[in-house]
């Protein structure tokens, strides 16, 4: 079975001159997100302690009102009627108090304790005094000193939608809502295959061979997109032969939802990715994108014996082009697989002009000034360079047939961050 373009059905393998035109950048992103969402990972139930890094598969709702009963906001005295008040007991957090039956009575109350029925006010401990006969006196503050039932949320109210990433804040909220477990989609499992006989994995470049920069870097980017990538899932460099390519892909696909490859996305004498995909019976979702840099990126889909779709993302061999492919195709695919919303791109004002790339979308590396809302082009941004990428926060999107003039408002594709990381 030949690998065929999903959009046109025309055979692409081995026929670069007759292949369909590159997909528009925004169209390609929408297409891969749709196929990812259609192949979203199955829903599983995980205990709260094991849910971090997963994605909500159903909206998060409280099982009761929050709080479920009125609770004191301060340490003090729950009083009924005018004072001074006779002390009739104590209420600690975790207990269910008897009602205050008559005016002129009070119970000592702790922060977080249930407010007794009949309470008219809570007097802060620091605002109170004791009379000679042991009564409590003082003036309650005008604002209520307790949290009313349902102040934070009502039972069944949607607090967070399906597709929300699960983090420690969400886990704590779910626990406060009375949940012991959550229906979630697990993180995608990813693998990386590095192609290229010319690559070195240690030491400096020499004698016509270059150092592999993507093997160490791409797994870290994938983890920032929420993937699980083990050291054993990174393979290569793989020999520049078709049998080696097919064997490496077949092995990686047995345990991964997504396999990324580096290099071999064109049709040169040692570019075997397209024939390997054909041999495995894959179908193209996207085969080349009208974007610079990174034009020869691709995404292919294979359906396993279990009926589930797996994906191969072909990243160009030039390092910056490979990262362009990650932010362009891999990011929306992973969002779909996890049942998350399509990433919405923020915008920024160009501090300096950035040239267009004719009929192609131009993704230009920029450093963001979050306070000013501006994007500043960085230097050393050739497709084979990583120096500019190391100091950048993302890519400014210069749409086809436009020029990014200083002062123009443009979309920005942010580079993925780990929790706690922030743009410079």
Features:
5-stranded mixed β-barrel, disordered N terminus, 18% helix, 4 domains, alpha/beta, 6-stranded mixed β-sheet, 424 residues, Molybdopterin biosynthesis moea protein, domain 2
Description of the structure:
The chain is of the alpha/beta class. The protein folds into four domains: 16-41 and 186-337, MoaB/Mog-like domain (Molybdenum Cofactor Biosythetic Enzyme, Chain A, 3-Layer(aba) Sandwich), CATH 3.40.980.10; 44-64 and 152-185, Molybdopterin biosynthesis moea protein, domain 2 (Alpha-Beta Complex), CATH 3.90.105; 69-76 and 99-148, no CATH class; 347-414, Beta-clip (Beta Barrel). It is 18% helix and 27% strand. The protein has seven helices and 26 strands. It has helices at residues 25-38, 168-176, 214-224, 242-253, 273-280, 319-337, 387-390; strands spanning 23-24, 43-47, 55-56, 71-72, 76-80, 86-91, 105-109, 121-124, 128-130, 136-138, 146-147, 181-185, 190-195, 199-200, 210-211, 234-238, 258-262, 283-287, 289-292, 298-303, 309-315, 347-350, 361-369, 374-377, 394-398, 409-414. Strands 16-13-17-21-20-18 form a six-stranded mixed β-sheet, sandwiched between helices. Strands 22-24-23-25-26 form a five-stranded mixed beta barrel. The chain has a four-stranded mixed β-sheet with strand order 6-7-5-8, with no helix packed on it. β20 and β21 form a beta hairpin. It is elongated. Residues 1-18 have low confidence and may be disordered. Keywords: Magnesium, Metal-binding, Molybdenum, Molybdenum cofactor biosynthesis, Transferase. Pathway: Cofactor biosynthesis; molybdopterin biosynthesis.
């Amino acid at each position: 079975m030949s690998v065929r373009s999903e959009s046109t059905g025309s055979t692409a393998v081995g026929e670069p001159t007759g292949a369909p035109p590159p997909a528009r950048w925004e169209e390609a992103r929408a297409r891969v997100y749709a196929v990812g969402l259609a192949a979203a990972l199955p829903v599983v139930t995980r205990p709260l302690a094991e849910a971090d890094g997963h994605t909500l598969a159903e909206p998060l709702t409280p099982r009761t009102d929050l709080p479920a009963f009125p609770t004191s906001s301060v340490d003090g005295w729950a009083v009924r009627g005018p004072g001074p008040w006779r002390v009739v007991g104590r209420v600690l957090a975790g207990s269910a108090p008897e009602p205050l039956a008559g005016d002129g009575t009070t119970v000592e109350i702790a922060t977080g304790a249930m407010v007794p029925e009949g309470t008219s006010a809570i007097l802060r401990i620091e605002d109170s005094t004791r009379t000679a006969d042991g009564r409590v006196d003082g003036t309650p503050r005008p604002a209520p000193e307790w949290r009313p039932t349902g102040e934070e949320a009502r039972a069944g109210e949607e607090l967070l939608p399906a597709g929300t990433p699960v983090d420690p804040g969400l886990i704590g909220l779910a626990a406060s809502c009375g949940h012991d477990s959550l229906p979630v989609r697990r993180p995608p499992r990813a693998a990386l295959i590095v192609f290229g006989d010319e690559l070195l994995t240690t030491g400096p470049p020499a004698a016509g061979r270059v150092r592999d920069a993507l093997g160490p870097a791409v797994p870290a980017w994938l983890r920032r997109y929420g993937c699980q990538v083990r050291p054993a899932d990174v393979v290569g460099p793989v020999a520049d032969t078709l049998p080696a390519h097919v064997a490496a892909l077949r092995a990686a696909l047995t345990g991964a939802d997504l396999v990324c490859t580096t290099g071999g996305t064109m049709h040169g004498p040692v570019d075997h990715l397209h024939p390997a995909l054909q041999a495995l019976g894959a179908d193209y979702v996207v085969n080349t994108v009208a974007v610079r840099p990174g034009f020869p990126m691709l995404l292919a889909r294979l359906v396993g014996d279990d009926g589930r779709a797996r994906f191969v993302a072909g990243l160009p061999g030039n390092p910056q082009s490979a990262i362009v492919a990650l932010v362009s195709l891999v990011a929306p695919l992973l969002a779909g697989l996890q049942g998350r919303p399509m990433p919405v791109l923020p915008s920024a004002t160009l501090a300096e002009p950035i040239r267009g790339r004719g009929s192609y979308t131009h993704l230009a590396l920029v450093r963001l000034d979050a306070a000013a809302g501006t994007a500043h082009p960085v230097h050393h941004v050739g497709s084979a360079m990583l120096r500019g990428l190391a100091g950048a926060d993302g890519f400014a999107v210069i749409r086809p047939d436009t020029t990014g003039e200083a002062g123009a408002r443009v979309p920005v594709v942010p580079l993925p961050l780990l929790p706690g990381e922030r743009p410079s």
